[in-house]
Amino acid sequence: MTILEINNLSKSYQPGNLAVRDVSLSIGQGECLGLVGESGCGKSTLARCVLGVEEMNDGTIAFNGLLLDKMNRQELRNYRRNIQTVFQNPTASLNPKLKIKDSLLDPYLQFHKELQLEHFTYTTKKAFVEQLLETVELPTELGDRYPHELSGGQKQRVTIARAISIEPKLIVLDEPTASLDVLSQGAILDLLVSLQKALGMSYLFISHDLAAVYQLSQHIAVMKDGELLDLFQREDIYGTSRHNYTKELISIF
Amino acid sequence: MSVMALSQKKIKKAKVWLIGIIFLLVMAAVAYTFLYLKHDAAMTDVGNRLASPSGEHPMGTDHLGRDVLTRLMLGFRLTVGYSVLALGAAVIIGVPFGLLAGLKKGWIDRIFMRVADGFLAFPDTVIAIVLSGLLGPGIGNLLFAIVLVKWVNYARMVRSTVLTEVQKDYITIARINGLSTVSIMRKHLLPHIVGNVLVLASLDFGKIILLISSLSYIGLGAQPPTPEWGAMLNESRPYFQMNPEMMVYPGLAIVVVVLAANVLGDYLRDKFDVKKEVQP
Asked: How many structural domains does chain A have?
């Protein structure tokens, strides 16, 4: 079942200069779609359109069959409740003045009225924080710390914990490992794989690192200069019908 | 600098702010409790003018026989009270303006910035003198002038804080979660602003006391017989050679309160500067 469908999406920041040109993609329930491309190829812009931070110029984004730009208040709220994000820079993603536990509580407090959680059982705020931190393999006492007391890898685990806290249907991962060292990168990728297995979420995994994308994704899309060049199943990565640019990317990873 | 010297410096600094707080608290306690009841600040006693310190008048009496200590303590209420009033008004006007300019941007921001530039082109004291000169001398007009000069600082600071924070990812994430502008302000921006406002306010507190006192001294602020410290200084001017301590006490009071406020401001600045804590 498809949960997110992007059709012919175009977005330009300056007139006549398209950052994303006519891209169509779809993500199935519980599936991970990897989006690869070099810096500035439009993959983050695409993500920002999906997240509703940028308005698209042309095309449609549909979530469970509902068009994003035609949603009413209630539907939009439901969309936001089901879509969460993890950005590249964990330091910027956490308010430096708030304790970890308060940052973790943010989406929960926003949506707690309509939440019906299946995997987590929150009764108190304390239990909420502890359960989440345990899920992302962090010591529970970190809840009372401030972001600057944590390492980059720990902070990224916190932002992942925040993203999964309300059990969304889709998480947009915009280069979640790009600012981490190699060891933390591997650990975060493993965590993302196990979380997806446990919670059954879909991922839109954006990265310039084909190796990382290959590890997580069932489907892989390749973008260059705002255009979608290639879209294939994970198993077909070495197939003969691959675009030359994809082959180039494969040869360097 | 050696580690030893560095740690000693830290201890000294820590004690200084404590002394500042203690001084302010003691003065406030004295000003707001018993001494005021002992004498009437306006009660003249011409037979006992310019008296030396005694048990009855610990700091002596002034040229009209009024008790100096009582007037000094009443002056604490006035000077500190006016200063807090002006500061509060400046913060209350400045912070919402800054939030609005930083969040809405566009023409609101542009108009605001030009107004702010206009105020900043003149030194505080000059605007305050011109305004209280135009509106006439008196403490009300002086306070109005001070608020008019000071609110810009708060608005500008809040605006720049908002502008830097708003483009960070955590605000974007809050927006994606559908938090309203008001919730983002309250939950995410206010913690950044409170610290900065507190620091700026405690540093401004001393400056405002100085401004009120100095303008009262030159006759533009509080008028005699109000026991405002600057006005007291002004009144004691003709008697400086005969009875210099009459001038020393209010001057000393101003120095102590301003110093205490500045030390407190420095301490708060260090405390709210998260980045400093990270550095070893």
From this structure: 1
Residue A228 structural domain: 2-252
B-chain residues near A87 (CB < 8 A) = 169, 172-173
CB contact under 8 A, A106 and B277: no
* pLDDT 10s digits, A207-239: 988 888 888 899 999 998 888 888 888 888 888
Report the CATH number of the B61-278 domain: 1.10.3720.10
β-bridge mates for residue A170, sequence order: A83, A202
Q: Residue B11 has which token pair?
A: 């201890």
Partner B contacted by A59 (CB < 8 A): no
Listing DSSP states for B148-172 in one string gives: HHHHHHHHHHHHHHHHHHHTSHHHH
A94 neighbourhood in chain B, CB within 8 Å: 170
CATH number reported for the structural domain that contains residue A50 in this entry: 3.40.50.300
The ranges assigned to domains in chain B are 61-278
Q: Does A112 touch chain B (CB under 8 A)?
A: no
pTM recorded for the entire structure? 0.77
The DSSP call for residue A219 is E
Which residues partner with A84 through β-bridges? A171
The answer to whether B67 touches B189, Cβ cutoff 8 Å, is no
Q: Cβ distance A63 to A79 under 8 Å?
A: yes
Amino acid (one-letter) located at B203: L
Taking only the tens place, the pLDDT of each residue in B27-78 is 777 777 655 556 676 676 767 777 777 767 777 777 776 777 778 888 888 8
d(CA A28, CA B194) in angstroms, rounded, equals 45
User: B10: part of which helix (H) or strand (E)?
Assistant: helix B3-32
What is the token pair recorded at B40? 């009437």
